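Case study 2.
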Amino acid sequence: MIAMTLGEIATIVGGRVSPASSADAVVTGGVEYDSRKVGPGGLFVAFEGEKVDGHSYAAGVVAAGAAGVLGTKETGVPTVVVTDQLEALAKLARVVVGRLDKLTVVGLTGSSGKTTTKDYIGQLLARLGPTVAPAGSLNNELGFPYTVLQATDETRFLVLEMGARGVGHIRYLTDIARPRIGVVLNVGAAHIGEFGSVEGTALAKGELVESLPADGVAVLNADDPLVAGMASRTSARVVRTGESAADVHAADVTVDDAGRATYSLKFGGKSGEVRLAVVGRHQVSNTLAAAAVALSAGMDFDDLTTALGEVGIVSGRRMDVFQNPAGVTVIDDSYNANPSSTSAALRALASMGAQRRTTAVLGFMAELGEYEISGHNDVGRLAAELGVDRLIAVAGNARPILDGAATVSGWSGVAYFAADQAAAIEILQQDLRADDVVLVKGSRYRTWDVADWLRLGEVQPT
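Prediction:
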């Protein structure tokens, strides 16, 4: 964060400094809400949780070198006392980003692929100048201002992921930090139980392009009709991406046996081959969006084609492919799941396992509302149509996946139901062979124990 005194911060956020004598203490480090991460000169944001009160760590972090604390009560050490920490962070982030006049803010949203694409954009822009694009899904009312506050006077690019669970959520985030470049990846069924429909999702996601200035850039996926239609909702210059007619587009896409795509990138009469190192046919769309941002920021086209081939996975449990000691290839995509992202992961599994035995361990997909059963049916049906050899549905709400697979006549695979992660591990342990390819996918916290077992457990080849 840019340097500020506690007194200045208190004025910005509408709080008070306690003790008042510490108002001149200067915050020169980062803002953190995890006491273990607070460094010298930093500001610790203390939250009071159900089990742990962050204020109890205040004295320790200040003794270790932090400049002070932001919290809702006095702590006995220099503290900016406020009534609401999230509101205070939003106010502070708004002022900080407003003072960084050399900063280009990039915002992106979509039903799936946000974090991965944010990581790609961050890797590309870092070649042009100091960039803030932290790993993970920091896309809500806490993570968003937290990311903004990592920017300093030296930062040239700030890449912000924007999540939404209803109309007005993205507008709230753009009021904190208004992007100059905005990206909308796709509109799908993620969180549809809260949005009510894909049209409702599109209405909310489009708030990003509405926030852009007239001299800004809206990067829109031309292959998604609901995203393409957002062009009428912005005064910014529109750059379309896709595999059809688009400003930045991919032609001649092929996928190798390892699931990695190669394509011809075309823009402004130029063409260059891109050979991706990341896995999944869907990464073509993600990297096209990242390419459009990089080009809009001034990256040379030839440099871009090389750079795209070097981007990799930054945030964990997102198409993280590894091989365990027994020779089993694992696709750990277990951080979260929705019908679109699960379908993409299944296609990657089928591509990588074309000449090998494949297993899909699929957990429950949350927040689908009235589409819960049909959404699970659809991915089960796709798994069978793709010829997945073993399909394991984890936990009761995921059982409709198996029902969907059962509707595909001629499918020769085997279906299993596992009551929990331990049961899924037991199924795998009974018959896991060297050279198998295993996908682990599910909404957060539900299936990644399986991926961890595959990574750390000793599986004997048969």
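The longest helix spans residues 85-99.
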